[in-house]
Amino acid sequence: MMETKIIKVDRDNPEAGIFEEAAKILREGGLVAFPTETVYGLGANGLDAAACKKIYEAKGRPSDNPLILTIGDISGLYPIVKCVTENAKKIIDAFWPGPITLVLPKADCVPLEVTGGLDTVAVRFPSNIIARELIKEAGIPVAAPSANSSGKPSPTRASHVEFDLSGKIDMIIDGGPADWGLESTILDVSGDKPVLLRPGAVTKEMIEEVVGEIDVDPAVYSKPSADIVPKAPGMKYKHYSPAAKVILVSGSRENVIKTINEKTAEDEAKGLKVGIMATTQTKDSYVSGSVLVVGDREKPETIGANLFKILRKFDFIGTDVVYSEVFDEDGEGAAIMNRLNKAAGFNYIRC
Ligand code: AMP
Ligand code: MG
Q1: Is the dihedral of CA 163, 165, 167, 173 positive or negative?
Q2: What integer pLDDT is reported at residue 4 of this predicted model?
Q3: What is the pLDDT at residue 218?
Q4: How far is CA 200 from CA 118, 230, 282, 283, 343, in A?
Q5: Which of 231, 236, 239, 338 best tests ligand 1's pocket when mutated (most atoms within 8 Å of CB)?
Q6: What is the 3-state secondary structure (H, E, C) of 158-213?
Q7: How, if at all, do strands 142-143 and 68-70 pair?
Q8: Which long-range contacts (CB under 8 A, 24 or more apart) does 290-299 make?
Q9: Pocket test residue of 81, 101, 182 for ligand 1, highest count of atoms within 8 A of CB
Q10: Among the listed residues 91, 92, 87, 90, the one whose alpha carbon sits nearest the alpha carbon of residue 75
């Protein structure tokens, strides 16, 4: 075990020189977790295979699940890709810096250990000031997957990172809660027609306004098969899940509430500890179980921002089973339901 140093940074006004030590750790092959506008990332020198190997070890992540390289400035893109396609240029103009990752043909300097053996590389230019200043100061592309134990809900607060990775990484930069709370959109723009690999804050509709019709990888909506070559996170591996069994309950509001109340009573009679993921609109309709409010149906961004925190909380209070309401899949709802489906292993009660 190593000692994990934690530093607090005011993201609206980072002190001069505050990132020097963290940048040095990154350049020298160490691991630093830092906030981004999506979730907390676990950073390592993205051109150093040995440093990236430490990411896989700290997270317990399978080595064929590729990493995203983050850049602090648009100029950081050109050395790590073979070419920037026309579609990539349009997306970059419209959405960078911001919560969308682009998959492009990789340059030779990017180690295959980083890309899970693929000849493409995933690149993101985050908008979070702490992330950008840190990466710029480090002067290297920074590999930064989510800073959680592999398979667990992604971290949206420094305390989540500390819980999962304390003693396994060199430093955590605490810059407050992540704004968006779900991982970046991933768009493969390496071929002729863009393919959405993971839905996120930049929605399919927003992308199609810029580049026209895109394809969506089938694994975004359905349970993947075991022998799939992973292209986006969660396609092959169980993802985002708490220790409890998560069951999604869909149907009319009245039926969902009735079903969850019945199931909760049955499970509690068997001695199980039941969690219920509710919304501001429904929380008072549940008669038993540990009811946690994930957000307000009228403000879907609150659900995205709280989802992983609430899934972690169910672990913390020690539930055996969690019943969750489901949400509209339009716009940003696509990202929310994608994560929730994976957390539940596509386990539904339809009523
Ligand atoms: P995360 O799971 O949040 O750490 O994000 C990293 C994810 O980006 C990986 O799981 C990949 O699925 C995706 N990714 C990274 N590199 C590539 C690539 N070359 N092609 C397709 N997806 C990629
Ligand atoms: Mg992840």
Answers
A1: negative
A2: 98
A3: 87
A4: 23, 18, 25, 26, 16
A5: 231
A6: HHHHHHHHCCCCCEEEECCCCCCCCCCEEEECCCCCCEEEECCCCCHHHHHHHHCC
A7: antiparallel
A8: 290/314, 290/317, 290/319, 294/324, 297/327
A9: 101
A10: 92
Tokens for 284, please give them. 């008072």
Residue 251 contacts by C-beta under 8 Å, 6 or more apart in sequence? 259, 350, 351
Q: Please, is 167 exposed, middle or buried when counting C-beta atoms within 10 Å of its C-beta (0-12, 13-18, 19+)?
A: exposed
Please check whether residue 241 is in contact with residue 342, taking contact to mean a CB–CB distance below 8 angstroms.
yes
Can you say whether the dihedral through the CA atoms of 205, 180, 168, 320 is positive or negative?
negative
Q: What is the pTM of this model?
A: 0.94
- Tell whether ligand 1 has an atom less than 6 A from the beta carbon of residue 232: yes
Q: What is the pLDDT of residue 124?
A: 98
Helix (H), strand (E) at residue 5: strand 5-8
Cβ atoms of 169 and 188 closer than 8 Å: no
Which is nearest to 195 in space by CA: 208, 182, 181? Answer: 208
The H-or-E segment that residue 45 falls in is strand 41-45
Helix and strand numbers (H, E) in the chain are 9, 16
Q: Strand, helix or coil at 55?
A: helix
pLDDT at residue number 163: 97
Q: Averaged in consecutive runs of 10 residues, what is the pLDDT profile of the chain (351 residues)?
A: 96 93 98 98 98 97 92 98 98 98 98 94 98 98 96 95 98 97 97 96 97 93 65 59 92 98 98 98 98 96 96 95 95 94 93 94
Does residue 166 contact residue 65 with C-beta atoms inside 8 Å?
Answer: no
